Amino acid sequence: MILSLALRNSLRSRRRTALAALAISASFALLLILLGIGDGIHEKMAEIGVGMGLGDVLVQQAGYADDPKLDRSLHSPDALRRKLLGLPKVREVAPRLRSDALLTAGATSVGVALSGVDPAIEPRISKIDTPASMVAGSALTSELGTRPKSELPPIVMGRELSRALGTAVGDRVTLTLRPAGGGETKSGAFEVHGIFATGVRDIDAGWAEIPLTDAQRLCGFEGGVSVLSVFLDHVGDATEVSVDIRQALRGQGVEVQSWMQAAPDLYAFIVVDQGGLYAMMAIVFVVVAAGILNTLLMSILERTREFGVLLALGATPRRVVAIVLGEALVLGLVAGGSGLLLGLLGNHYFATTGIDLQKLIGQSFEASGVLMPKHFFSHLSPAKVWWSSVVILGLVILGAAYPAVRAARLEPLEAIRHE
Amino acid sequence: MNERTRFAVETVDLGRTYRQGGQEVRALSHVNLRVEPRELVVLAGPSGSGKTTLLNLIGAIDRPSYGEVKIDGLELSSLDAGQRARVRREHIGFVFQAYNLLPVLSALENAELVLELQGLPRRECAERAERVLCAVGLGELLSRRPGALSGGQQQRVAVARAIASAKTLVLADEPTANLDSKSAEALLDLMLELNRERGLTFLFSSHDPRVIARAHRVIHLEDGQIVKDEVAA
User: Fold this and answer.
1) pTM score, whole prediction
2) Which residues of chain A make contact with B92, given a CB cutoff of 8 A?
3) Scanning every residue of chain A, which has its alpha carbon at the shortest distance from the alpha carbon of B89?
4) Which of A47, A264, A310, B39 could form a disulfide with A315 if both were Cys (CB 3.0 to 4.6 A apart)?
């Protein structure tokens, strides 16, 4: 009868109950949609960041992150790579040789971050050296490794860099760097094979890639690899997998970094943005709690006499609390349930159709130096649906707690006399 | 306590004072009262004499300023809110002057309510509530809500609610005050019948001569004190 009493009492002031339910439902639905869009954007940002010469997880020689010298190269990178590929959730492992270099075209020289990459692997995981990023020429491909010796080795570079050097596809450029072990600088001639535009300022203005074997030759470091970039099935698993890798490679003199550690600026941007989302969630939660509190408090004030009668008939204070919480639960389940349904429908729409942010804000969207794509898709994790539902229901109970205790503490006689 | 000394109701030097407009009002002063089991007692007296205050104290819905109230030998003043609720639930049936039925519940559900509070199985609650409602002549109106019942019918539901849980003591505050003559007679006949057949103890507050005429004992109150205690012939 308590549930029946709760249900009927909820329907006594239909307009007030409907308004409270509408506020809770709409707030919860909006919250779920914004959470989904926010997570979708953050995931995309992470994906783009990871694809820009990073990786979900990086495996390097110990000390390389603090002092990235050519000398700090991985020992037995092939064996390490095979071991990494055998780990769960690992999709690909890309060997890369990194060095600072000077790129010269004619009389112009520009300092660049040089990356020697495996053209057979890179197009599958990178967002730099891929046909999609190329605005002129083409990406490095595995066939280039078998070119005639008479031909110059290929180089691809960012659009801003090529503008600064005044080069175009087919032009000859010279790379100069200090080889492993120090000593005299070494130079090599390369032919501009492709020009890319990733949307990341630093990459487009100061990044160049050449085949790994040519990089190793130029650096005087046969078989040398600075970093093994590990790519996972899902970027969200980076922390968990980095722990697994750390355990698997313990004692081998390597350091393991998740992309969050390797790109702290990007990660900080995402964390701050998520913080904004959570602040908004807090506001929604306050609205829900206030809605419940107001609705039930009004309802209980109006029914003071009835609670007095219940107490006079022998209802324990605990039973009165149960009746009020029952009403809150009815309201919470109906409003929360419809909010959940609306939120999931909204997320489904934005997960399939996407949202055109450029159209929405009227310009391209850049975050932490990363030019974001036009379209974003919502990605709402089941865990977030679950815990936000639990929080909403918890808040409903919390919002009802004060009215419930207030009703339970009524003195029967005073309550019965209440007008 | 010896069974012989256990009264259905016993008050010892009972008093109740209120603060009203900064002044102390003595609603009840040093009342000593004993009601035997199966007695039908009427508290009579003019308005403001303390009848309702005494019923409220005996019914454990108000607390005395001093003195004791014992129900079936159980002293109430030392009990906490939960224990007092249990006494109300298991020992006392209360018929309020203004009926005080829950408007969202039907007549049947109102009568069932106390039984449910006692923790009886749902089906038993429904069967017993239906039985007492039939006994008070409302067998045809079980599903009606209080708003769709007349004053007399609502009072009958209130009586049914009070007696449905087979309590030993029924307190009724001016039970006939809002009833027409016919309904009042019918209600009083019903209570007398319950007193005779089920051995319920009744304590009424009333200045209705019809009620007083049916009582075993009439206790007269004036200015919060018992001025006369007479046994009916």
Assistant:
1) 0.68
2) 314
3) A314
4) A310
Q: Chain B: residue nearest A4 by CA?
A: B105
Q: What is the pLDDT of residue A366?
A: 62
CA–CA separation, A205 and A244 (whole Å) = 35
Q: Is residue B216 part of a domain?
A: yes
Q: Is residue B72 part of a domain?
A: no
Per the CB < 8 Å rule, is B102 touching A318? no
Residue from A145, A182, A236, A165 nearest A71 by CA: A182
Are B102 and A5 inside 8 Å of each other by CB?
yes
What part of B 149-208 touches A (C-beta under 8 Å)? 161
Q: Exposed, middle or buried: residue A400 (CB in 10 Å: 0-12, 13-18, 19+)?
A: buried
Contact status of B96 with chain A (Cβ, < 8 Å): yes
Residue at B165 is within a domain: yes
Distance CA A220, CA A241 (A): 33
Number of structural domains found in chain B: 1
CB–CB of B13/B68 below 8 Å? Answer: yes
| Nearest CB to A1; choose among B86, B100, B113 | B113
Residue A417 touches partner B, C-beta closer than 8 Å: no
* Residue pLDDT, tens place only, A109-155: 999 999 999 988 888 888 887 888 889 988 887 665 556 666 889 99
Q: Is the pLDDT of residue A385 over 70?
A: yes
Q: Which amino acid is at A255?
A: E
Residue in A310, A12, A405 with CA at minimum distance from that of residue B116: A310
pLDDT of residue A191: 93
Q: Could B117 and A306 be called an inter-chain contact, meaning their C-beta atoms sit closer than 8 Å?
A: no
**In terms of CA atoms, which chain A residue is nearest residue B93?**
A313
Domain boundaries, position B178:
37-60+81-231
B125 near B166, Cβ under 8 Å?
no
User: Cβ contacts (< 8 Å) between A310 and chain B: which residues?
Assistant: 102, 113
* A324 touching B (Cβ < 8 Å): no
Alpha-carbon distance B174 to B216, whole Å?
17
Q: Which residue of B82, B89, B113 is in closest CB contact with A317? A: B82
**Helices and strands per DSSP (H, E), number in chain B:** 7, 10
Q: What's the pLDDT at B110?
A: 93
Contact A311 B61 (CB under 8 A): yes
Q: What is the CATH number of the domain that holds B176?
A: 3.40.50.300
CA dist A214 and A268 (Å) reads 36
Instruction: For residue B194, tell me if it sits in a domain.
Output: yes
Is residue B216 a contact partner of residue B23, using CB atoms and an 8 Å limit?
no
Q: What is the DSSP letter of A75?
A: S
φ, ψ of residue A94 to 5 degrees: the values are: -110, 120
Segment A185-193 shows an average pLDDT of 91
Which residue among B81, B109, B117 places its CB closest to the CB of A313?
Answer: B117
> Mean of the pLDDT values across residues A154-173?
93
Tokens standing for A312?
């006079």
Report whether A37 contacts A146 (CB < 8 A).
Answer: no
pLDDT recorded at residue B169 = 92
- Residue A308, pLDDT above cutoff 70: yes
Cβ distance of A8 and B56 shorter than 8 Å: no
CB of A208 within 8 A of CB of A114? yes
Q: Does A5 touch chain B (CB under 8 A)?
A: yes
Q: pLDDT tens, B25-44?
A: 899 999 999 999 999 999 99
Q: Where are the domains of chain A?
A: 2-49+267-417, 55-262
